[in-house]
Write a sequence for this structure.
């Protein structure tokens, strides 16, 4: 049973992790397609899985607002200029949390690890599809290029998200994922 | 500026600096400044002309002068992004065709055509970005994070009638800001611990496989210690009988003063003026007249 206090604190802490990963560039993995593989949406997914859709939406809002500010004040590349538009940076990120939470709940019957993997994949794909969709609808990029980016960037990002989501949540909840470590 | 070692991440977590010059702008009510910041962003995005943006530019320079912030310092914030801006503007001018009925072609070669519209589009890109950043910098130079969160909470309070949790959200933002240096310290500690056990750290590693390998032993403990601290904070808050926002009073009360309203109205008028100017679409006429004189 989760209290409001815990929800507030988790939202704040996960939001802080998202900002930190972005500001310190630890959240960017260089990838051959040019655009980096990012992991700043992971706190959103993990927060949503642990505490629910509203917390996920709040963390998504913080993530989006920070990417807007970062695009305006300290961009890391030319694509950051697009993120100064809230329709690209904020609105898509609001849905990552709820989507991840919904899939997690749906698949919980099949098994925790499966549910977590699915949540990671769906959350990451939501981010990819909605952000790229916004870029396409606003005519910042041609649709053909968007399709390519969605595949070369979106798929590896989803895989990375799934791995890290499972690792973190399983460790936090002390689930058995077949890793040999200390068992207390 | 001290040289940062490859492990010091704390120096990078600055989302805009605060300059305590104690000017009239600094003493404005943070709610007014927040409303202006939002209106600023809207005015810049809605602006499609250089004339309108020059009005905004004049306004922000006036604001910087009033806030006693050295102009050169504010402009130096634009320097890191200038190469990207130039690149994108060049792309706009040269590569993206402006198919419109009455675009006057200025220069043409076999593959490319530069029309007056494309040059304006490139200049617009740079101007829009510069004005936006200067405005946001002015805002962050003159507002502390405490003022900011108080302002946000006060502004969102009327929305509590529609069940929007203003107090809770302000607290979330506060906690997030408070945790940033803690996370930076933690990450630094983790990186050093990993490095002392033989991991090859350093901020310059380009290879994807190497960075991905280093990621898991760094991220998972970071998340776990953050979650652990979150548990402890929750317990601490509940142990001190934190009951939420109902009936909660505040130490810092925000009072609206006449100068706040004056500043608000004045700035909103300027924003409206600039958007109106942008609607007039006078850019092309001015530009063509300038070019025809050359």
């Amino acid at each position: 049973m989760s209290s409001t206090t815990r929800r507030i604190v988790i939202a704040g802490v996960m939001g802080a992790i998202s900002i930190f990963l972005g500001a310190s560039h630890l959240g960017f993995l260089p990838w051959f397609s040019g655009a980096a593989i990012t992991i700043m949406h992971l706190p959103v997914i993990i927060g949503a899985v642990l505490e629910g859709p509203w917390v996920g939406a709040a963390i998504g809002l913080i993530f989006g607002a920070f990417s807007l500010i970062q695009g305006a004040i300290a961009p890391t590349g030319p694509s950051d200029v697009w993120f100064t538009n809230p329709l690209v940076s904020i609105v898509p990120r609001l849905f990552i949390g709820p989507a991840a939470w919904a899939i997690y709940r749906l698949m919980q019957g099949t098994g925790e690890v499966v549910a977590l993997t699915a949540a990671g994949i769906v959350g990451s794909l939501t981010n990819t599809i909605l952000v790229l969709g916004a870029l396409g609808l606003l005519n910042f990029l041609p649709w053909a290029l968007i399709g390519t980016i969605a595949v070369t960037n979106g798929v590896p990002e989803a895989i990375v998200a799934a791995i890290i989501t499972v690792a973190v949540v399983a460790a936090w909840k002390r689930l058995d994922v077949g890793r040999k470590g200390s068992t207390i | 500026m001290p040289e940062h070692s490859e492990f010091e991440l704390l120096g990078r977590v600055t989302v805009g600096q605060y300059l305590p010059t104690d000017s009239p702008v600094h003493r404005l009510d943070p709610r007014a400044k927040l409303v202006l910041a939002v209106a600023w962003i809207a005015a810049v995005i809605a602006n499609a002309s250089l004339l309108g943006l020059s009005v905004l530019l004049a306004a922000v320079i006036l604001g910087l002068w009033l806030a006693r912030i050295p102009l050169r310092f504010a402009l130096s914030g634009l320097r890191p992004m200038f190469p990207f801006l130039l690149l994108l503007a060049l792309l706009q001018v040269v590569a993206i065709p402006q198919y419109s009925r009455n675009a006057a072609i200025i220069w043409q070669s076999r593959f490319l055509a530069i029309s007056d519209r494309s040059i304006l589009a490139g200049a617009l890109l740079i101007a829009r970005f510069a004005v936006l950043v200067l405005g946001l910098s002015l805002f962050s130079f003159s507002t502390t994070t405490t003022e900011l969160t108080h302002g946000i909470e006060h502004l969102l309070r009327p929305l509590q009638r529609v069940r929007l949790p203003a107090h809770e959200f302000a607290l979330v933002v506060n906690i997030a800001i408070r945790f940033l240096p803690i996370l930076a310290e933690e990450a630094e500690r983790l990186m050093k611990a990993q490095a002392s056990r033989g991991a090859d750290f350093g901020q310059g590693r380009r290879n994807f496989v190497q960075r991905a390998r280093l990621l898991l032993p760094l991220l998972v403990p970071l998340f776990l210690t953050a979650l652990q601290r979150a548990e402890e904070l929750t317990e601490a808050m509940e142990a001190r009988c934190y009951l939420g926002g109902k009936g909660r009073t505040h130490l810092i009360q925000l009072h609206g003063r006449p100068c706040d309203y004056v500043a608000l109205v004045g700035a909103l008028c300027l924003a409206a003026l600039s958007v109106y100017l942008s609607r007039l679409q006078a850019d092309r006429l001015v530009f063509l007249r300038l070019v025809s004189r050359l």
About this structure: DSSP finds seven helices and two strands in chain A.
